[in-house]
Amino acid sequence: MNLFTSSFKRIFKERIVLFIPVLAGILVVFHLVAPPSDGFRVIENNSFWKKKTFDKNKYEIVVCGDSRIYRGISPDHMKEILSGYKIINLGYGSAGYGDIMLNEINKRIDFESKKSMVILGITPLSLTHEGEMNWHLRTELATKKEELIELLYFKKISQFFIPFTFSEMEKHVKGKDFYTSKKQEYLDGGWVATYEEKPWEIAALKSYSTRFINNQVLESNINRLVKATGEWTEKGIQVFAFRPPTTEKMVALEDSLSGFNESNIRERLENKGAIYLDFEMDKYTTFDGSHLQKESAIRFSKDLANAIANNHQSAQNLHNSKNE
Predict the structure, then answer these.
(1) What residues form the membrane-spanning segments (predicted)?
(2) Is 156 in the same domain as 10?
(3) Between residues 12 and 116, which one has the greater pLDDT?
(4) Which stretch of 1-5, 58-62, 71-75, 182-186 has the lowest confidence by average pLDDT?
(5) Does residue 55 share a domain with residue 167?
(6) Would you state the pLDDT for residue 45?
(7) I need a labelling partner for 231 at 20 to 30 A (CA). Which of 39, 47, 140, 205 fits?
(8) Model's pTM, two decimal places?
(9) 47 in the same domain as 114
(10) Which domain holds residue 120?
């Protein structure tokens, strides 16, 4: 009996020793081939924003604004027209032209370059109190050092050790992966390429219908932006401004509720040397009635770059004539 027990224990230990590496191998393979889980996406998202926020590089083109900018403009596709430029998408959720955003723009723009530009994506929300507060940007800037190091330098390791259940493994084997109809790619340069398989072009209208209650466009925010524009142009920085493409219904809703007077803002910015660009809203499609689908964002990025290229020399000539 003792001999049997001893043999059983020995065989059991040998099998365990063999089984553990096999199981570990299976888990490693699963982690490598499994599609991103929710936890994986959270780390990807957080790492993207930390990298964007704490980037120390200087850029010749800084494109800024709210979520219509960070989802709507691809620096890489702009570079297809504006080759040789360093471009950053400095868009943040519900961002506006308060002191904190203007400070970030000044930190990123290359004041030493003679071809630097600030590109202002101006939405009604970006000139409200909510926009001025820049809660998303503030949150990112307040990141603790330990979290920052983890997300910037150990992202892949963190993603590898995300726990998963055997039911999740079973779903993957059966082809029932972690599904979401909204696909988001967090890309270098600050763009979040977004594709919604089931677009609903009135989805955002409901939330925006109450967004401007006690949250109107503020004259103080317009004044601050106009002043900053004048300071940039005086330093030789070209400034372009535009209203990011969205749906006609959204434009009508925003204009009726926010107190946004685009023609007045345009005139005041142009008086400070900015060039205001116009785009046809119906050329592009959104996934929610507010933000551009990936393919439209690519198209718009190229349209924006072409508009900048076409107006670049005239802006330089205007600046030079004022300084003669």
Answers:
(1) 16-34
(2) no
(3) 116
(4) 1-5
(5) yes
(6) 77
(7) 140
(8) 0.82
(9) yes
(10) 36-322
Give yes or no: residues 82 and 180 share one domain: yes
pLDDT reported for residue 16: 59
CATH number at residue 286: 3.40.50.1110
**For residue 271, what are the CA distances in angstroms to 111, 241, 252?**
22, 13, 26
- Give the model's pLDDT for residue 19: 55
Q: How many domains in the chain?
A: 2
Residues 179 and 232 in one domain: yes
pLDDT for residue 223? 99
Average pLDDT, the chain: 85
Together in a domain, 69 and 25: no
